[in-house]
Amino acid sequence: MIALVAVALAGLATLVVSAIVIGVTDRRQSEAWRRIAEQRRREWERRQRQLHGRPHHVDAWGDEDTD
């Protein structure tokens, strides 16, 4: 019985440590991912201007405001 409790506690400890490591790693990487997304967005907008010949505005959150 003690062995079963020990295995269960070890499993829970592993989950907690994994969650902490993943959270810290994600927090450190979030700025890099935002920078990459911004660069991709600017590149996409540049291609849209080339294809359509005029500024192309996209309101990405426009459909979220309708209730």
Spell out the key features of this protein:
Secreted protein, rod-shaped, 76% helix, mainly alpha, 0% strand, 67 residues, 1 helix
Tertiary shape:
rod-shaped
- Count of individual beta strands: 0
SS-based class: mainly alpha
Largest sheet: none
Helical fraction equals: over 70%
The low-confidence runs, each spanning 5 or more residues with pLDDT under 50, are none
Rg from alpha-carbon coordinates: 23 Å
The H-and-E topology, N to C, reads as H
Count of alpha and pi helical runs = 1
Chain oligomer state = single chain
Terminus-to-terminus distance: 54 Å
What percentage of the residues does DSSP assign to strands (E)? Answer: under 5%
What would the average pLDDT be, to the nearest integer? 86
Protein name: Secreted protein
Region (Disordered): 45-67
Organism: Pseudonocardia tropica
